[in-house]
Amino acid sequence: MSNDPWYSLGITPVEALWVVVSAIGIYAVFFLLIRSFGQRSLASWSTLDKAIVIALGGVVGRVILGYTPTLAAGIIGLLTLFTMMRLEEYLRRTKRGVYLSSRPVLLMAGREILADNLRRARIQNDELYFKLRQAGIHNFSEVSLVLLEPTGDVSVLRRGVPVERELLRRVADKDRIPRELLLPEDGS
């Protein structure tokens, strides 16, 4: 039995540093993958998607914790991931933070389905129709706007009340929205 306090924690300082570096690396790669595959990759998951995520969690855990996971390594890994989340949250509030989050994508403007935006967002027409049905839409004439949000969720806004322009602040292609669906510039 050693008198070294690191020995009783089950991790050496070098191993602890490796856990931190691994957690930061995995976080960065995950962030880049989500950005490159689009926010839709985190939305509605099939059973297979959920199984794959569970498997990926095991792989990520092993990468972060190393060959011999210990309680100390687990705590250091979790603290590092939560610190990265807090740092990202802080950076999103800064002027440059706008680059960290995806912009909402306009999928429908009135009755018009924007096929190019659907393709870019990796959404099939059938998925769009499913979201419309979920929102209680019976026909296309009821639709004001459909947006893919930065979270991967799909928002369906109904016709009837014009949409305030401030709500569409970061929406890509908002110039494609018919004027009659928007509150006039003067707010009246």
Automatic annotation (TrEMBL):
Keyword Metal-binding attached: no
Q: What is its main location?
A: membrane
Q: Which residues form the YetF C-terminal domain?
A: 100-161
Topological relation to the membrane, as annotated: Multi-pass membrane protein
Key words of the record: Cell membrane, Membrane, Transmembrane, Transmembrane helix
Top-level taxonomic group: Bacteria
PANTHER family in the record: UPF0702 TRANSMEMBRANE PROTEIN YCAP
Segments traversing the membrane: 16-35
Q: Name one Pfam family in it.
A: DUF421
Q: Which family does it belong to?
A: Belongs to the UPF0702 family.
Q: Does the keyword Membrane apply?
A: yes
Protein's name according to its UniProt entry: DUF421 domain-containing protein
Give the UniProt subcellular location, in the record's own words.
Cell membrane
